[in-house]
Amino acid sequence: MNIPVAETAGVERSGREATKTISHLDSIPTTKGGKSVRRYILLACLCVMLAGHGLAQTGETGDVDAFRQILEQDNFSVQEGGIGHFDLIKLYDAGALPSAYGNNPATKYLAYFVPPAPGGTIDEQIAEITKTLGMSGNTSAFWNLGPDEAVIFVGQTPPECRYFGYDNYLMSRTYGNETRWIFANMGDSLNNQIIKTEGSPGDPYNQTTIVVATADRGIDERIRAAARSAGYSDEMMNTQVFPSSILNMGLDNTSDTFAIFIRPSLFTDKQVGDEYIDNTSATILRVTPKNTTQLDPYESPDMRVKGTGKTELDLTDDLNDLRNAILEKYSNLSATELPTAPGFPQGIDAIQRGIDAVGPSNDATYLWSANQAVNSPTPPFFDTTQYYDFLRNPPLTLGNDTNEFIIVYGVNHVATGKATYSSFTLNGADVWNGVGSITDADFSGTAEEYLPDNPNAKYLYVYKIARDCEGDPHCFELPSGIGSYGIEPDQPIFILWRSYLESATKTAPSYNEIVYDRAIKFEPAG
């Protein structure tokens, strides 16, 4: 497969990279039989330079087939996987999972589907998940990784959207005879403000990139050398470090299980975005050395620091004024103010305590309508109705009465500059099915009705959740009667707020610097 570039200058750059690779050929190891691969790589480098004129005419750079062949010549076993939409509600409806695990309806998650290591097999339940999603039966979204292996993404980043991030996760870990679901991110996300691509700085969308996920520096360097020889430049290469100091790398039954997900959110052109989700132009490769390798594990990388010191706290009085205006408008109804709390632990915290983190990203803060956070170990693929009872007790439901609704309000974290995008989602509290997201794109002007003379109203929002929204432009109509894509009138509900990526820090806003979002349930008195 040939991957296009935006300009022919990349050919000249490829030639320079090939020259650089030639000068480092002495570092390339020999094959098991003692036959050197340096001659092959030298030939490949010369081909890149000599083909420059032809590449410039066709507007192409980098060749994944050549990349794979060079890796094989460097004595790696290379297996191809795939990338696909990890549709949690589809998996729940098909009976492949017992829960939707808090899916975000504003995001269609993509997952790496990775073949097992040479000679390995796929677990039966995981194979059913793969089959349900229409992926190759010999791949899995949940996989082990040896300390000297790598998984590689080669292809296009998502098209223009408000946010995307590549996150690597520790999914499960064995403690004695007990296997626990951890679902914790292992560090920072590779997001649209950080990722290196073939495009110029500041243009991360729909660009060719290489992402190497590995625990080992030496393996990473060999992969990068092969990529340069195949025509890719260092400027588009990224490494996602698996920090082996906190992981149980390996291929046996007690080794950690991993996953990598991509979160593209709020595409500028929805049709183009949907096409990318359905037909992602990318290749996933699992790379395993055929010979014993001297390990050179990466240190755990530094993480981006959250917080700028600038807070939203001065808007607290304005938010309280908004609360009073909402209560006054609906004073003929009974009001129940819902609690708000951070929902999930940080990934590294969860790994150290052996608890379920429920798949967070370092690029987001998570709040929900509950009075406590997840703080317990769970088994793999657990039934959420058996855990986290505090989300359903006391139950929050939404009936069909026109005077029964929920008002969600708060600070628009995008308007204050604390987030790139923010949203809230309506979820069933039993199987955690997210059925609708309202984003900051819907918030503009919604608080002025309640605070017409307050200049800070532009930093606030108000939104209504009801079964019938007729005549109300700032209302989300909660669906029912459509299975897990809706929430029934007697099904308990919780609200989940997400705020992604403060531009100043290129990571999540600090919980200490945002004003928590709020919600009030209204219903007829008595």
Shape summary: globular
**Averaged pLDDT:** 90
Report how far the terminal alpha carbons are from each other. Answer: 67 Å
Number of strands: 23
User: Helix coverage percent of residues?
Assistant: 10-25%
| Spans where pLDDT lies below 50 across 5 or more residues | 1-60
Query: Helix/strand-derived class?
Result: alpha+beta
- Overall radius of gyration: 25 Å
Q: What amount of the residues lies in strands?
A: 25-35%
How many distinct helices? 10
Main beta-sheet strand count, sense and barrel state = 6 strands, antiparallel
Walk me through what this model shows:
This protein has 526 residues and is of the alpha+beta class. The chain has 10 helices and 23 strands. The strands form 5 sheets. Strands 4, 5, 7, 8, 9 and 12 form a 6-stranded antiparallel β-sheet that branches. A 5-stranded mixed β-sheet has the order 3-13-6-10-11, covered by helices on one side. The N and C termini lie far apart (67 Å). The N terminus is likely disordered.
